[in-house]
Amino acid sequence: MMTSNLFTLRWGILATGGIANTFTKDLLIDPTTRDAGDIRHEVAAAASSTSAARAQDFLNEVGAPGSAKAYGSYRELVEAKGVDIIYIATPHSHHYQHARLALEAGKHVLLEKPIAVNAQQCRILRDLAKERGRFLMEAVWTRFFPLSREVVEFVRSGQLGHVKRVFADFSFWNDVEKEFGNQHRMVNLDLAGGALLDLGIYSLTWLFMALYHVQPKETQVAPHVSSAVTKYKPTGADETTTVLLLFPGTGAQGIATTSIQVATTPNPDLPAPDAIRIQGTFGDLTVNYAPRPRSYTLTPAASQARGTLASFKHETKSFEIPGGGHGMFWEADECARCVRDGRLESDVIPLEETEALMKVMDEVRRQADLAYPESIENLEYPLEGFGL
Ligand SMILES: NC(=O)C1=CN([C@@H]2O[C@H](COP(=O)(O)OP(=O)(O)OC[C@H]3O[C@@H](n4cnc5c(N)ncnc54)[C@H](OP(=O)(O)O)[C@@H]3O)[C@@H](O)[C@H]2O)C=CC1
Ligand SMILES: O=C1OC[C@@H](O)[C@H](O)[C@H]1O
């Protein structure tokens, strides 16, 4: 149901690849189908670095309104009147350059994951957004699922007792050589490809949600990092990566795994074990799937000596994604509310936490001697060759 205080956020879509398509279709779903009657999204424009015709095809394909403008360069998009926020959906390697382009043009930014390729770039984007008074958020959509919000509150409330350990996996099997070759963004170092930045970020997100985000400031301390990385021989990108984190504020441990050679769900027609396991002194909470979670299960701990200390029962709770969408609209709704309320960042995914997680990925890469080309680790802006 619409309210009289309806706020409209006008979006500019920067790049026309796979996820831009999925995200923009979600923007076009009526927010009232998910009880978000206070905000509205308008797809105002899209840009392709290829051509304006490609941008127009994209707008037609997603079903954008006829009023939406098509641009053949990213610069025209960020300078367009009638656009409030830019959704950036280019490869990892280009995030820093494109986010700077949008912020310097005075636009708010929702930036696909990972926010940048290293923590220094992230820090510069944070500072720039603050200096310009613009909203900035990394598009880790998982955090905005009602299921994820509920899990975080469950952990924060202490109902699991003291959380001591978390396991999280997001791995996606592909016939890598056949499907990706050497140029695909998943394995191409020139695009900052590899399992860690693309998939492992979700495993790390669950560790951070359960072991860092819920902590009060005094125990929210950066984790110690140990890791193992196996590289994809043809390109040197990471293909199977395991990260062990020790959170010194609490002593809790987290294990995040990721791979592009084996899968969390090897066969979608067969059941697979839950991908996330949060273990507290009163029991376990497991979540079925990292990026797009659909159910969680509570298992109270029991021992002969103490019976159960848990206040919860063994139960599985399932969640639908309403409106026929993919589930990316919840993060978009957060952007609209933050911009409406003059908030420059979301407290569901604070920029400080985005940077702390990015530092973990930096350290994993340092331990594995895995660097991307200097041109994309660079802090300079603008650089040639980024469609600017
Ligand atoms: N949240 C999620 O669930 C998902 C997030 N992602 C993230 O979204 C981002 C994009 O991924 P995805 O959409 O799958 O990628 P695609 O390769 O499908 O699309 C990337 C788009 O970026 C633009 N682009 C600009 N420069 C380059 C370049 N040098 N090489 C390739 N593309 C370029 C192109 O658009 P144009 O020609 O129009 O300029 C291209 O279509 C990544 O950061 C990824 O991690 C990806 C999948 C799922
Ligand atoms: O963000 C993502 O989630 C789903 C994956 O298939 C995709 O490669 C990745 O970028």
Automatic annotation (TrEMBL):
- Domain (GFO/IDH/MocA-like oxidoreductase) spans 149-285
A GO molecular-function term, please? nucleotide binding
Tell me which positions the record assigns to the signal sequence.
none
Q: Does the keyword Transcription apply?
A: no
Q: Which Pfam families match?
A: GFO_IDH_MocA (PF01408), GFO_IDH_MocA_C3 (PF22725)
Keywords per UniProt: Oxidoreductase
Q: Is the keyword Oxidoreductase assigned to this protein?
A: yes
EC number, UniProt record: 1.1.1.179
* The Gfo/Idh/MocA-like oxidoreductase N-terminal domain, residue ranges: 10-137
TM region positions: none
Catalytic reaction list: D-xylose + NADP(+) = D-xylono-1,5-lactone + NADPH + H(+)
Per the similarity annotation, which family is this?
A: Belongs to the Gfo/Idh/MocA family.
Please identify the protein, giving its name as recorded.
D-xylose 1-dehydrogenase (NADP(+), D-xylono-1,5-lactone-forming)
> Where is the organism placed in the taxonomic lineage, from the top?
Eukaryota, Fungi, Dikarya, Ascomycota, Pezizomycotina
